[in-house]
Amino acid sequence: ATSMSEQLLARGVSPALLLLLAGGVAGEWTGHLGLSFESDRKVEERTMLCPSGFITGLKVRQGRDERSDIDTYDFQLQCGRRWSAWTGMTFTGLRQEKAFECPMKMHMTGLEVTKGRREWGDVDTYDFKLQCSGVWQEYMGLGVSSAKERAAKECPSGTMAWGWKAFRGFVKRGDQDYYNFDLNCKPAADSQQAVRKTPSPREIGLSPNVFLWSAKDVGTWLGVLGLGDYSAAFEANKLQGDVIFLLLESHLQDLGMRKVGDRLYFMEELTQLHDSTNAWAKALGTPLSSTRRLPNLHKAGLPAEVVSWSVKEVVRWVEALGLHEWAPLFLSHRVQGDVMFSLTEVTLKEMGMARIGDRLFTVDCLQSLYEELTSWKKRRETVQATVDPARLLGGGASAAPQGGVTSAGRGYATASPSGAGA
User: Which residue has the higher pLDDT, 187 or 407?
Assistant: First the structure.
């Protein structure tokens, strides 16, 4: 019986590649897919391995030389979130290029290829379908002329693809172009290798202060997670950085995130983002803040005793938050100061405030305002209990609250991604 090394050498694997395979965690080749394969000239072969992690996507470009009726393909692998170089297989006359990435950065566990042949013009075409974390996806859509055969291979249970091998053969008679493929699969030597990793905000060009993120920035982050399909819904609902930590799984359902796995993955990543940003804030020694702030009550012409506000004064406060679009709702629903702190996200939705981000922001500002007023009243009571009443008559009482507390003004260090304020 020959050793694995001897088998790999016999199959054309270079000694350098063999050393890489032998170093620490070797994988196993699945064997050719089983597509028909012939060649009357030397077979062209290219091997690629992900230096770390596993394959998460495939890019294919298709070319054709009409004069010689030769059809060519070349390939790139996505390893984690980085694309490799092209394999360098014979290629000419670019016709199209397609890419497919596994959803949510899942890992590739299988490959299916369909081959087509149109005798008129001697056109050979191929299309590709990936299996991601055990689930077959859709074909890439390269287009196949008169499908002739289909073949597939899956990684053994508990393993994922980290290597790819492509073979090209050519038969002059009929100008027949043949391709075949092989996957190298291995288990994760360290279980952390199998966990989808998210880069830090700095790595994707975003501020480490998540509270400064715009809705577009949140969409960028979703794209890196592999959840870019939901970016439009997040942006339409004005879900920017200063409110995303208030999201609940029920909000994700309202945003169209129907797949349970997507929601669980998002909530896990949101928690990790919260923890990492919280650690960064503590290292700075100051709570993080948003560009949106509570309005200054004095400058807005509003009395400090919020419970005495009329409906019009409540509307003025809502407009000062920058929520002019929703101000008429507070007027039509007769929301006065003595009930505004009883508002919840549910009642705001019932009133007609359609955007999730605006509802979360409003509830968060109401809670911040309530805490500021409570703190001011406690300070005033302390002053009244300890200072001579005569001095109070002279104007020595503590100043009324002026506003200006940051949205999520309780300070990032006490913020929670579990939906406080919802």
Answer: 187
Bridge partner residues of 165 (DSSP):
47, 182
Alpha carbon distance 116, 73 (integer Å): 14
186 vs 158: CA distance, rounded Å:
8
Per-residue model confidence as pLDDT tens digits over 87-118: 999 999 999 999 999 987 789 999 999 999 99
DSSP class of residue 164 equals: E
Q: By the 8 A CB rule, do 35 and 151 touch? A: yes
Contact, 281 vs 287, CB < 8 A? yes
Could you tell me which of 57, 139, 62, 140 has the C-alpha nearest to residue 97? 62
Q: Using the predicted structure, report yes or no on whether residue 403 has a pLDDT greater than 80.
A: no
User: Which of 247, 184, 258, 241 has the alpha carbon at shortest distance from 412?
Assistant: 241
DSSP letters of 380-417? HHHHHHHS-HHHHHTT-SPPPP---PBTTTT-GGG--T
Give the per-residue pLDDT at 193. 53
pTM check: above 0.70: no
Spatial distance between the Cα atoms of 267 and 247, rounded to a whole number of angstroms: 9
Vertex 311: Cα angle to 309 and 317 (nearest 5)? 70
Task: Say whether 111 sits in a helix, a strand or coil.
Answer: strand
3 state SS of 139: strand
- Considering the chain, what is the average pLDDT of its residues? 83
Cα-to-chain-centroid distance, residue 113: 28
Give the model's pLDDT for residue 414: 34
CB under 8 A, 24+ apart: contacts of 10-17: 12/45, 13/47, 14/47, 17/47, 17/49
Point out the least confidently predicted range of 232-236, 300-304, 391-395: 391-395
